[in-house]
Amino acid sequence: TVSVLYWPETGAPPRATNHQCTQPNLFRRPSAAMTESSGLVNAQRIRALVTRHVSSTGPVDQCDPAVLNEFVSIVHRGGSAEILGALKDPFKHGVPATQLRALHLIDRLVQNTPPDFTLCLTTEDWAERVFRTSKTTSSSEVADRIMLLVCSWHKRYPVEGMVKLIARFQQSKVVGERFQYIQADYNRRVAEKQQQRQRQEEEQQRQQQMQQQLSAQPSRTVHADPVGGPAPASRPRQTQRVDLNTLLMDVQGDMAGLEYGIQHPDMLDPDTAKDCAKHKATLSRIVENPAHVITDDERATVLAILEQLVNLLSFHDAINGTDYAGGA
């Protein structure tokens, strides 16, 4: 008997095409101890919130909105590692209901916070924990839920850590076959939803065109650009792509300077780390904000660069006692 899989909320509409981040990390990801924030979050408060959530008697796929909002605020203050640290034991050793509540909270934070949280989730320790728990849990529902969410997280943030985790599930002798079934079902559902959304958009455009034709006046006709370029309505996206390319060149230039400064501390310009922290915030907004019109390939590139940037800033913080990686 095949159980019915829970379909996760993905926040932004999922895409049907997988993208792998091919750019390698400049450094190995730092440990959680290296990325702890400096007093910006209250560890005791986080533990209390986690306990309140996982011990709830409500449905396992719900979270108190006030609690969720506070968790989101903590992530924005650089507390991703602390939240995951508090969730470690309930997720790994809890009863199935507790594990499902922990999973639901993790998923809500992946969907509602900047990529920083997901990058913490893809550290070697947490990737190992997610993979092993799918094999050791006493509940097939928990195992299926883990594998389904991994597919969802990879679709949303195809960073290198997620790509490796997907490959590990696929190659597993214990859960590999089940994972491949879940992944195929997930991809099929994503494709169906995308096709449905595309049909709805086409129908809306058709109706809008009909309305415009019925109410159009000669003075309202949209003419082509007099210099032979595209119509004015198509210019914002083109301009935005040019701006994105320029931004990424600036980011990579500052990253190279920061990397050199880490290797040669006496040559490090203090403003370089500050500039990189600003770039991190900007790239996070681009990934989060649907108003930024970028292609799937551009989004994958931004995520890969953002992952490298966070790693660089984390090493800089560990060496210099700053908090640009988590608090920026």
UniProtKB/TrEMBL annotation:
Basic and acidic residues: compositionally biased ranges: 192-205
Q: Show the segment(s) annotated as Disordered.
A: 192-242
VHS domain boundaries: 60-180
List, alphabetically, the InterPro entries matched. ENTH_VHS, VHS_dom
* Molecular function terms, GO-annotated: phosphatidylinositol binding; ubiquitin binding
Kindly provide the name given to this protein in its UniProt entry. VHS domain-containing protein
